[in-house]
Structures are given as structure tokens and as C-alpha cells.
Amino acid sequence: MAQAATQFLAGLSPPEREQSQQELNKFVRWYGMERPVREVAAHEVANYAERMEGSSANAMKRLEPVRAFLSYAKKEGLTQTNLAVHLRVKKSSPKRGLLGKERRKEVVALTPQGYQKLKEELLALQGQRPKIADQIRRAAADKDFRENAPLDAAKDYQGKIEARIRELEEILKSAVLAAKEVDTTKVTRGCTVVLQDLSSGEELRYTLVHPNEASPTKGKISVASPTAKALLGRRKGEVVEVAAPVGTLRYRIEKIEG
């Protein structure tokens, strides 16, 4: 990467080189000076753009040297595609930024079982990192990287794994374990509700959990689902209506369990 950046800068006029060198050096150090240019992944380029601070206009101006370098890399056959198209800065108003901060601070209530399940998933994904890195290393050894499908697939998979790892880390960091004793006077998160379908007479049993714990086949429904939203705060004996593609469903709350 460092060698390619040096060759790119050498082809610029002295004024252009002076303007571009600082920002391009930042990108090279962030990506890895010794890493081959052909290993640059689209999601890495996108991540670099998203971390830029300041206004959108200022960030885009600072990214111009990196954009020019990535276009140069494609022209010289160093990359398979023009990765410059992935240098996009997200536009956000101050209000949206504030809401985003509030969301990040939101406390996630998990059952002990749900917390353990997510922790185990995180450890399993983290354990895959060495294997994925080895796959990328072996795929990158193929000299014909322009049509290296295994390399592209390995990088895409790595991007998905890393995104899920970050998501799980954020959830577990802000998680609090739900109280063992659940208020059974009304429907709340973590309780189990026994319902009667007023159309069919069928009895249903649902436990309301965080979206990451949801498993409809096991009777665990997300608190963000339409059914859970209709149930939250309601009491035994009340009838609730849930809008569904087949029409409006009506349930009577028969029992609330902790």
C-alpha cells in the first residue's frame, strides 16, 4: 500500500502532491502500510469514510486525495474495481445525531438465558477470526486477483462477521439482566402471556423478549412485534386486537406469568 501511494504521489505536480500527501498518508496508515492494495475491501473503504469528522462538505473535500488514489489503483490494475465509489459521507442533521446518541445509550434488558446465548455467539464469531484471516491470506496468494472469487467471498464474509461482532459487543455492553420476579399484574417485557384466539378458540403462549432473543418456534416473540406491542401494559381479561395480513386478530389475555 505504501509503495502504491508513493508512486501515485510521484505522478502529481508539486502543489497537488503537497495538498494530497497528508490525507493520503492517514488512509495508508489506517489501512496498513504493508498490506497489498489488492486486499482493500469495499466495506473498509466505506468504514474509513464514515469515521471522518466534521461537516459533510469538509469531509468530502478531505477525502478527495483518497478518492483520486483509489481511482488510480483501478486504472493501474491494482484493484479489481474502482473503490472510490464507496467513499460516501453520511449526511445527518444535528437532531438526528442527538437521537443516534440517545439510541446508543439505550439500556437493553435481557433474560439471563438470552444474555448467555448472545455471549456464546460473540465468542464463537470471535473464534472464527483466525480462520477467516487464513482464508483471505491463501486466496490473496492467487496472482490472478482480478477474478479471484474466493478472495471476494472471504472478504464479504469477514465484513459480515465483524459487523455482527460489533453489534453483539454493543448489546452486551449496555445490557442489564431482567429481574427474576416479573410483575404479573400487567403484561411487561420478560413475562409469559397465555392468550385465547377469539376466532378459533386456540390457546397461545408467548414470552415477550428483546428482539435478539426472539424465537417464534419456541414461543418467544420480540417486544417490537405487533402482537407484543398490543399486549404490553394490558391486564388479565382484556381483549387486544392485532393487525395482520389476514385481517384483525382478537385475543383475550387469560393469564400472565412471571
Structure summarized in a few sentences:
This protein has 258 residues and is an alpha/beta fold.
Describe the structure.
This protein is of the alpha/beta class. It folds into three domains: 2-91; 97-177, Transcription elongation factor, GreA/GreB, N-terminal domain (Helix Hairpins, Orthogonal Bundle); 192-257, Transcription elongation factor, GreA/GreB, C-terminal domain (Chitinase A, domain 3), CATH 3.10.50. Helices cover 49% and strands 15% of the residues. It is built from nine helices and seven strands, in the order H-H-H-H-H-E-H-H-H-E-E-E-E-H-E-E. It has helices spanning 2-10, 14-31, 42-50, 56-75, 94-104, 112-127, 129-140, 149-174, 226-231; strands spanning 108-110, 175-177, 192-197, 203-209, 220-222, 239-244, 247-257. The strands form two sheets. The protein has a five-stranded mixed sheet with strand order 5-4-3-7-6. Helix 2 crosses helix 4 and helix 6 packs antiparallel against helix 8. It is elongated. The model is unreliable at 93-104 (pLDDT under 50).
